[in-house]
Amino acid sequence: MKIKSNLVKFTAAAALTITGLGVANATNSNSTAHQVAAATTKVKINYVPGYGINIWDNYNNPSFTGNRIKHGEVVDVISSAIDAKGKTWYEIGENQWIQARYTVDANDDNAAKKASQAGMVGKNVTSSSKQAAKVVNLANAEVGKAYAWGGNTPNGFDCSGLAQYVFSKAAGKEISRTTYSQIKQGKTVSLKNLKPGDLLFWGSASSPYHVGIYVGDNQYVHAATPAQGVVKDSISSYFYPSVAKRVLN
């Protein structure tokens, strides 16, 4: 991988720590997002064994480059940045960015073990079927796609269309088209005992208005709104699902 050699200049006075890496504010930062320089640091991709994370062309309004880095690979971080939503990104090459949350310090032998114990990697993988892992991988790959009312293709999704597409393409599991019918499929599971690949619903069991795909680590992928498109969010108290269904065996 070709690594960009010229780092962004930074001032020591503005030094801070982001995700365990020492960095400093870039002189060309703005009010909504900023890039910071970092001494070259090695990180290990900490995602799902057998799968990879997307490489994006930038950290603000990113576009998928078509390339991925597999779980377990080690890469050099040449700079860091925080996007307008407060998420940390790492630059690993020219026009090549990855999300920091899918990495651990490559020099910390205990990092992956700690992440697994926290539920970030190992537990979700070992407790999930191969089908569930494929569902999670494809759901994550659709992040950034556009929202379209009635859409169920990569050209645009609505919430139930995304669920239908991902389960069909990734697991060969045909589920129905709307939230009203999807909530009637599979078996109901506790929201405290979720597994990757479970479907999350908002609204009542008889009248759900939204659905998302649980991908582990307290996160889910869903086609949110026309303005947001397909995004990954964390389960939170202010937007807490009401029902979870397990449609995979």
From TrEMBL:
Lineage: superkingdom: Bacteria
Keyword hit for Plastid: no
Signal sequence residues: 1-26
Keywords, alphabetical: Hydrolase, Protease, Signal, Thiol protease
Sequence ranges assigned to domain NlpC/P60 in this UniProt record: 129-249
Presence of the UniProt keyword tRNA-binding in the record: no
Gene3D superfamilies named among the record's database cross-references: endopeptidase domain like (from Nostoc punctiforme)
Assigned protein family: Belongs to the peptidase C40 family.
Name by which UniProt lists this protein: C40 family peptidase
Source organism per UniProt: Lactobacillus panisapium
